[in-house]
Amino acid sequence: MSIVTISREMGSGGSIIANALADKLGYTLVDGDTILKEASKYGLSQEAIEKADEKPPAFVESLDARAEIDFHHIQQIILEYALRGNVVIYGRGGQDILEGVESVLTTRIIAPFEFRVERWAEREWLDPDLSRILVHKSDQQRDGFIKYYFDRDWNDPCNYDLIINTIKISEEMAVDLIIHAMQEKYLLEQRESSKERLRELILRKKIEIELIRSADIEGYHLQIDIKEGTILLSGHIHSDSERDIIHEIINAQQPNYKIKDELKVFAYYVNPKEV
Fold first, then answer.
1. What are 119-132's pLDDT values in tens digits?
2. End-to-end CA separation in angstroms for the chain
3. How many CA atoms lie within 13 A of 243 on its CB side?
4. CATH of the domain spanning 3-182
5. For residues 149 and 196, what is the distance between their CA atoms, to the nearest angstrom?
Protein backbone atom coordinates (compact mmCIF):
# COMPACT_ATOMS: atom_id res chain seq x y z
CA MET A 1 0.00 0.00 0.00
CA SER A 2 1.82 3.12 -1.24
CA ILE A 3 0.64 6.69 -0.77
CA VAL A 4 2.22 9.87 -2.12
CA THR A 5 0.94 13.36 -1.35
CA ILE A 6 1.87 16.24 -3.62
CA SER A 7 1.75 19.85 -2.46
CA ARG A 8 2.48 22.35 -5.20
CA GLU A 9 2.77 26.01 -6.02
CA MET A 10 0.77 27.31 -8.97
CA GLY A 11 2.91 27.22 -12.10
CA SER A 12 5.50 24.85 -10.60
CA GLY A 13 4.50 21.91 -12.78
CA GLY A 14 2.91 20.00 -9.91
CA SER A 15 -0.13 18.95 -11.92
CA ILE A 16 2.01 17.54 -14.74
CA ILE A 17 4.18 15.67 -12.24
CA ALA A 18 1.21 14.25 -10.32
CA ASN A 19 -0.47 12.95 -13.48
CA ALA A 20 2.76 11.53 -14.88
CA LEU A 21 3.59 9.84 -11.57
CA ALA A 22 0.17 8.20 -11.33
CA ASP A 23 0.37 7.06 -14.97
CA LYS A 24 3.87 5.62 -14.62
CA LEU A 25 3.01 3.70 -11.43
CA GLY A 26 -0.52 2.75 -12.48
CA TYR A 27 -1.83 4.47 -9.34
CA THR A 28 -5.10 6.31 -8.77
CA LEU A 29 -4.74 10.08 -8.90
CA VAL A 30 -6.90 11.64 -6.20
CA ASP A 31 -7.54 15.20 -7.36
CA GLY A 32 -10.46 17.55 -7.82
CA ASP A 33 -11.94 15.49 -10.67
CA THR A 34 -11.76 12.29 -8.61
CA ILE A 35 -13.49 13.95 -5.68
CA LEU A 36 -16.19 15.31 -7.98
CA LYS A 37 -16.87 11.79 -9.34
CA GLU A 38 -17.44 10.51 -5.80
CA ALA A 39 -19.40 13.56 -4.65
CA SER A 40 -22.94 12.26 -5.12
CA LYS A 41 -22.29 9.32 -2.77
CA TYR A 42 -21.70 11.81 0.05
CA GLY A 43 -24.43 14.30 -0.81
CA LEU A 44 -21.92 16.78 -2.21
CA SER A 45 -22.79 19.10 -5.07
CA GLN A 46 -20.28 20.60 -7.49
CA GLU A 47 -21.00 24.00 -5.95
CA ALA A 48 -20.27 22.67 -2.45
CA ILE A 49 -16.96 21.21 -3.58
CA GLU A 50 -15.93 24.43 -5.29
CA LYS A 51 -16.75 26.35 -2.11
CA ALA A 52 -14.85 24.04 0.26
CA ASP A 53 -12.00 22.72 -1.90
CA GLU A 54 -8.60 24.27 -1.03
CA LYS A 55 -10.10 27.56 0.13
CA PRO A 56 -10.12 29.13 3.58
CA PRO A 57 -13.68 30.04 4.57
CA ALA A 58 -14.91 33.59 4.60
CA PHE A 59 -15.08 35.01 8.10
CA VAL A 60 -18.40 34.40 9.81
CA GLU A 61 -19.40 34.82 13.43
CA SER A 62 -20.97 31.40 13.67
CA LEU A 63 -19.97 28.04 12.25
CA ASP A 64 -21.37 27.27 8.80
CA ALA A 65 -22.31 23.68 9.62
CA ARG A 66 -23.21 22.72 6.05
CA ALA A 67 -19.87 23.93 4.65
CA GLU A 68 -18.04 22.23 7.51
CA ILE A 69 -19.76 18.92 6.80
CA ASP A 70 -18.95 19.24 3.10
CA PHE A 71 -15.29 19.82 3.91
CA HIS A 72 -15.20 16.76 6.18
CA HIS A 73 -16.82 14.66 3.44
CA ILE A 74 -14.04 15.69 1.05
CA GLN A 75 -11.53 14.53 3.65
CA GLN A 76 -13.44 11.27 4.05
CA ILE A 77 -13.23 10.61 0.32
CA ILE A 78 -9.45 11.15 0.41
CA LEU A 79 -9.04 8.87 3.43
CA GLU A 80 -11.05 6.06 1.87
CA TYR A 81 -8.98 6.23 -1.32
CA ALA A 82 -5.82 6.18 0.80
CA LEU A 83 -6.98 3.03 2.58
CA ARG A 84 -7.28 1.28 -0.78
CA GLY A 85 -3.62 2.14 -1.36
CA ASN A 86 -1.52 2.92 -4.41
CA VAL A 87 -2.68 6.52 -4.70
CA VAL A 88 -1.22 9.91 -5.53
CA ILE A 89 -3.08 12.55 -3.52
CA TYR A 90 -2.83 15.92 -5.24
CA GLY A 91 -3.22 18.95 -2.98
CA ARG A 92 -6.25 19.21 -0.65
CA GLY A 93 -4.03 19.16 2.46
CA GLY A 94 -3.51 15.45 1.85
CA GLN A 95 -0.58 15.04 4.21
CA ASP A 96 -2.50 16.75 7.02
CA ILE A 97 -5.60 14.65 6.44
CA LEU A 98 -3.34 11.55 6.68
CA GLU A 99 -1.99 12.64 10.06
CA GLY A 100 0.02 9.87 11.71
CA VAL A 101 0.08 7.59 8.64
CA GLU A 102 3.79 6.84 8.58
CA SER A 103 3.90 5.12 5.18
CA VAL A 104 3.05 8.36 3.33
CA LEU A 105 5.72 10.09 1.24
CA THR A 106 4.99 13.82 1.45
CA THR A 107 6.33 15.84 -1.47
CA ARG A 108 6.39 19.51 -2.39
CA ILE A 109 6.83 20.94 -5.90
CA ILE A 110 8.15 24.51 -6.00
CA ALA A 111 9.76 27.06 -8.31
CA PRO A 112 10.74 30.76 -8.04
CA PHE A 113 7.78 33.15 -8.21
CA GLU A 114 8.71 34.93 -11.46
CA PHE A 115 9.48 31.62 -13.14
CA ARG A 116 6.02 30.37 -12.18
CA VAL A 117 4.40 33.58 -13.40
CA GLU A 118 6.06 33.21 -16.79
CA ARG A 119 5.20 29.53 -17.06
CA TRP A 120 1.55 30.12 -16.16
CA ALA A 121 1.26 32.98 -18.65
CA GLU A 122 2.62 30.75 -21.42
CA ARG A 123 0.44 27.80 -20.48
CA GLU A 124 -2.80 29.77 -20.24
CA TRP A 125 -2.02 32.41 -22.91
CA LEU A 126 -2.31 35.18 -20.33
CA ASP A 127 -0.96 38.68 -20.05
CA PRO A 128 2.06 38.46 -17.66
CA ASP A 129 0.59 41.06 -15.31
CA LEU A 130 -2.63 39.05 -14.98
CA SER A 131 -0.61 35.86 -14.52
CA ARG A 132 1.33 37.53 -11.70
CA ILE A 133 -1.90 38.46 -9.92
CA LEU A 134 -3.36 34.95 -10.29
CA VAL A 135 -0.22 33.18 -9.08
CA HIS A 136 0.07 35.50 -6.09
CA LYS A 137 -3.59 35.02 -5.15
CA SER A 138 -3.28 31.26 -5.53
CA ASP A 139 -0.30 31.20 -3.17
CA GLN A 140 -2.21 33.25 -0.60
CA GLN A 141 -5.33 31.11 -0.89
CA ARG A 142 -3.54 27.79 -0.49
CA ASP A 143 -1.41 29.12 2.34
CA GLY A 144 -4.56 30.37 4.09
CA PHE A 145 -6.36 27.08 3.51
CA ILE A 146 -3.60 25.04 5.16
CA LYS A 147 -3.20 27.53 8.02
CA TYR A 148 -6.94 27.75 8.77
CA TYR A 149 -7.83 24.06 8.64
CA PHE A 150 -4.57 22.43 9.75
CA ASP A 151 -2.68 25.18 11.59
CA ARG A 152 0.46 24.53 9.57
CA ASP A 153 2.87 26.74 7.64
CA TRP A 154 2.43 25.69 4.01
CA ASN A 155 5.95 26.88 3.15
CA ASP A 156 7.87 25.26 6.02
CA PRO A 157 10.30 22.79 4.35
CA CYS A 158 10.41 20.63 7.49
CA ASN A 159 6.83 19.53 6.76
CA TYR A 160 7.86 17.59 3.63
CA ASP A 161 9.94 14.49 2.97
CA LEU A 162 10.97 15.60 -0.52
CA ILE A 163 11.02 19.07 -2.08
CA ILE A 164 11.68 19.48 -5.80
CA ASN A 165 12.47 22.83 -7.41
CA THR A 166 11.46 22.57 -11.06
CA ILE A 167 13.51 25.53 -12.29
CA LYS A 168 16.29 23.04 -13.13
CA ILE A 169 14.65 19.65 -12.54
CA SER A 170 12.43 18.44 -15.38
CA GLU A 171 9.02 16.90 -14.75
CA GLU A 172 10.37 13.54 -15.93
CA MET A 173 13.25 13.66 -13.47
CA ALA A 174 10.91 14.79 -10.69
CA VAL A 175 8.76 11.70 -11.26
CA ASP A 176 11.83 9.45 -11.11
CA LEU A 177 13.02 11.11 -7.91
CA ILE A 178 9.66 10.54 -6.22
CA ILE A 179 9.55 6.90 -7.32
CA HIS A 180 13.06 6.37 -5.98
CA ALA A 181 12.13 7.99 -2.65
CA MET A 182 9.11 5.68 -2.36
CA GLN A 183 11.53 2.77 -1.96
CA GLU A 184 12.87 4.12 1.34
CA LYS A 185 13.00 1.22 3.79
CA TYR A 186 11.16 3.02 6.58
CA LEU A 187 8.17 3.81 4.34
CA LEU A 188 7.93 0.22 3.18
CA GLU A 189 8.09 -1.09 6.75
CA GLN A 190 5.15 1.11 7.81
CA ARG A 191 2.67 -0.03 5.17
CA GLU A 192 0.76 -2.62 7.19
CA SER A 193 0.55 -0.66 10.43
CA SER A 194 -0.62 2.39 8.47
CA LYS A 195 -3.79 0.60 7.39
CA GLU A 196 -5.06 0.53 10.96
CA ARG A 197 -4.28 4.23 11.39
CA LEU A 198 -6.25 5.01 8.24
CA ARG A 199 -9.24 3.05 9.57
CA GLU A 200 -9.03 5.10 12.77
CA LEU A 201 -8.95 8.34 10.80
CA ILE A 202 -11.98 7.31 8.73
CA LEU A 203 -13.92 6.45 11.88
CA ARG A 204 -12.92 9.77 13.45
CA LYS A 205 -14.11 11.60 10.34
CA LYS A 206 -17.50 9.86 10.43
CA ILE A 207 -17.95 10.76 14.09
CA GLU A 208 -16.95 14.38 13.47
CA ILE A 209 -19.51 14.66 10.66
CA GLU A 210 -22.30 13.32 12.87
CA LEU A 211 -21.35 15.63 15.74
CA ILE A 212 -21.49 18.68 13.47
CA ARG A 213 -24.75 17.47 11.98
CA SER A 214 -26.42 17.04 15.39
CA ALA A 215 -28.80 19.84 16.34
CA ASP A 216 -28.53 18.82 20.00
CA ILE A 217 -24.91 19.85 20.43
CA GLU A 218 -24.38 23.58 20.74
CA GLY A 219 -21.03 24.50 19.33
CA TYR A 220 -18.18 22.20 18.42
CA HIS A 221 -15.31 22.64 20.84
CA LEU A 222 -14.08 19.11 21.33
CA GLN A 223 -11.28 17.07 19.87
CA ILE A 224 -11.35 13.39 18.98
CA ASP A 225 -8.48 10.97 18.61
CA ILE A 226 -8.61 7.22 18.16
CA LYS A 227 -5.82 4.83 19.03
CA GLU A 228 -5.80 1.07 19.50
CA GLY A 229 -9.52 0.66 20.10
CA THR A 230 -9.91 3.71 22.35
CA ILE A 231 -11.71 6.93 21.43
CA LEU A 232 -10.26 9.86 23.35
CA LEU A 233 -12.47 12.92 23.87
CA SER A 234 -10.96 16.21 25.01
CA GLY A 235 -11.95 19.87 24.98
CA HIS A 236 -15.14 21.31 26.43
CA ILE A 237 -18.90 21.03 26.17
CA HIS A 238 -21.77 23.01 27.65
CA SER A 239 -23.69 20.39 29.62
CA ASP A 240 -23.72 16.78 30.76
CA SER A 241 -26.66 16.15 28.43
CA GLU A 242 -24.37 17.07 25.50
CA ARG A 243 -21.90 14.52 26.83
CA ASP A 244 -24.59 11.83 26.71
CA ILE A 245 -25.50 12.73 23.13
CA ILE A 246 -21.84 12.65 22.08
CA HIS A 247 -21.46 9.17 23.57
CA GLU A 248 -24.61 8.01 21.77
CA ILE A 249 -23.30 9.29 18.44
CA ILE A 250 -19.96 7.53 18.97
CA ASN A 251 -21.58 4.25 19.99
CA ALA A 252 -23.80 4.36 16.92
CA GLN A 253 -20.67 4.54 14.74
CA GLN A 254 -18.50 2.12 16.71
CA PRO A 255 -20.02 0.35 19.74
CA ASN A 256 -17.00 -1.85 20.39
CA TYR A 257 -14.46 0.86 21.18
CA LYS A 258 -13.72 2.14 24.67
CA ILE A 259 -14.43 5.84 25.24
CA LYS A 260 -11.93 7.79 27.33
CA ASP A 261 -13.80 10.97 28.23
CA GLU A 262 -11.72 13.97 29.30
CA LEU A 263 -14.34 16.55 28.32
CA LYS A 264 -14.86 19.49 30.66
CA VAL A 265 -18.25 21.11 31.14
CA PHE A 266 -18.37 24.89 30.84
CA ALA A 267 -22.00 25.94 31.24
CA TYR A 268 -23.12 29.31 29.98
CA TYR A 269 -23.24 32.01 32.64
CA VAL A 270 -26.72 33.40 33.15
CA ASN A 271 -27.12 36.77 34.86
CA PRO A 272 -29.82 36.30 37.58
CA LYS A 273 -31.10 39.81 36.87
CA GLU A 274 -31.95 38.77 33.34
CA VAL A 275 -33.93 35.68 34.36
1. 999 989 999 999 99
2. 60
3. 17
4. 3.40.50.300
5. 24
